[in-house]
Write a structure and sequence with these properties.
1-phosphofructokinase activity; transferase; nucleotide-binding; single chain; 314 residues; four-stranded mixed beta sheet; alpha/beta
């Protein structure tokens, strides 16, 4: 079972339009609403693969009630922690060429008691979890050290932790030695305090994060592929993608694929790449099912193209 923790979940509404014109009245050609937040997306991808997952998250207001219902409809056990504020609603506008414009709300402010209640909800379920995936930004009211505390408590209970966050939250948590951290290229550059121009520079940055405490680094490099750097070495994975429809949740799908495949080594990296490649070819934040995966399109290697120049993010 994969337990996910999403301290700032959302309802994600996606509208597909022919073109975005500022100041105009636009009609959507398609729209959808999905349960959102990075940890929630990991749970959705795990559930889509037919595996058990439990989502721990604060829920408030009618938006939180809808989010819980949507999760249950997907076969995900929602371990909701009641909070006074309303769950946020995020808006994505998708254009046919793959351009995505996002409007993310800040979300409710959590009290000290509510923040502790989320940690307690994790504690009561930690023994049945193969992995705990802690994902996303922290809501207002939570200090950057909140994830560090969660990692420390989970490790004391014998659990393995995958952490997908950035900025001060990531920096503070590294001292507690999370088993896997999953930055994208921008977050990796932010963590080491310098821009990354090549795949080789990304490898060096991942090695620095390991030196700061991360036991393994799974880094998404967008269209360039993914890196895995752990105690056994560095590995690189790519996949052929015919058309990008939406990159919302692609990194979360990758993490789900990685953990579902064991969470270590080249085989797990290949699963991560396959899940990410499938996700970007689906609408909105839809998560791939096994039928969407194409393992034959994935190539993983320890012969990393260090001089390859990283593409600008789409």
């Amino acid at each position: 079972m994969i337990l996910t923790v999403t301290p700032n979940p959302s309802l994600d509404r996606t509208y597909e339009i022919p073109a975005l014109e500022r100041g105009a009245v636009l009609r959507a050609t398609a729209d959808r609403v999905d349960p959102g937040g990075k940890g929630v997306n990991v749970s959705r991808a795990v559930a889509a693969a037919g595996q058990r997952t439990v989502a721990v998250l604060p829920l408030g207001g009618p938006e939180g009630a809808l989010l819980a219902r949507l999760l249950e409809e997907l076969g995900i056990e929602a371990a909701g922690v009641p909070v006074a504020g309303s769950t946020r609603v995020n808006i994505s506008v998708a254009e046919p060429d793959g351009t995505l414009t996002k409007l993310n709300a800040s979300g409710p402010e959590l009290s000290d008691a509510e923040a502790e209640a989320v940690l307690e909800a994790v504690r009561t379920r930690v023994e049945s979890a193969d992995w705990i995936a802690c994902c996303g930004s922290l809501p207002r009211g939570l200090a950057p050290e909140w994830y560090a505390e969660l990692v420390a408590r989970a490790h004391r209970a014998g659990a393995r932790i995958a952490l997908d966050t950035s900025g001060p939250s990531l920096t503070a948590a590294l001292r507690e030695r999370p088993d896997v951290v999953k930055p994208n290229a921008e977050e990796l550059a932010q963590a080491v305090g310098r821009p990354l121009a090549t795949v080789g520079e990304a490898v060096k940055a991942a090695e620095e994060l390991r030196g700061l405490g991360a036991r393994a680094v799974l880094a998404s490099l967008g269209a360039d592929g993914q890196l895995l750097v752990d105690e056994t070495g560095a590995y690189f994975g790519t996949a052929q993608v015919t058309a990008v429809r939406s990159n919302v949740g692609a990194g979360d799908a990758s993490l789900a694929g990685f953990l579902a495949a064991g969470g270590s080594g080249p085989a797990a990296l290949a699963s991560a790449v396959a899940h990410g490649a499938a996700a970007v070819q689906l609408p909105g934040s839809a998560m791939p099912t096994p039928a969407d995966l194409d393992p034959s399109a994935v190539v993983t290697t320890s012969d990393i193209p260090l001089d390859r120049v990283l593409k600008e993010p789409a």
